[in-house]
Amino acid sequence: MNAPSTGPMLRALPAEHRQRLMRIAREVSFPQGARLFEEDGSADRFWVIRTGTVDLDMRVPGRRPAVLETLGLNELVGWSWLFAPHTWHLGAEATSPVRAYEFDAAAVRGMCREDPAFGLAVAEWIGGILAHRLRSARARLLDLYAPHSGVGFL
């Protein structure tokens, strides 16, 4: 069986590491409304979206989950699998029908341990995504809470 083709998300990995990772990819689909994972659950897999959208959310006591970000084409869903204790920090729900590449987290962590160069490439890939999402979250928070007038205080 040939490895599936990759989009820009996985192209952040060097070609040899991307090909190695894609050899264990499994094509999956989720209907709209499906929960991919729940906050504090076991982070045992991750996905790269091929089609559709997924909301990342967090529990808010007494309210519906708060949506923090919507992910789409070629974006990574899930990073908690890489870091102990391997539990989800957020929840995720398909907001449209989703097709994705699914990866077994334990298998990828094993590949990282066996091949330090591969492990470093994966860690840098995930780290870059986390840095981008942190900057995006910061910008959203500033939009929500920063003063909106150009007038300063005396």
TrEMBL record:
Top-level taxon in the UniProt lineage: Bacteria
UniProt GO molecular function: DNA-binding transcription factor activity
SMART domains named among the record's database cross-references: cNMP
The Cyclic nucleotide-binding domain, residue ranges: 9-78
Recorded GO CC terms: cytosol
Pfam families, alphabetized: cNMP_binding
Name of the protein this chain belongs to: Cyclic nucleotide-binding domain-containing protein
Lineage: Bacteria, Bacillati, Actinomycetota, Actinomycetes, Kitasatosporales
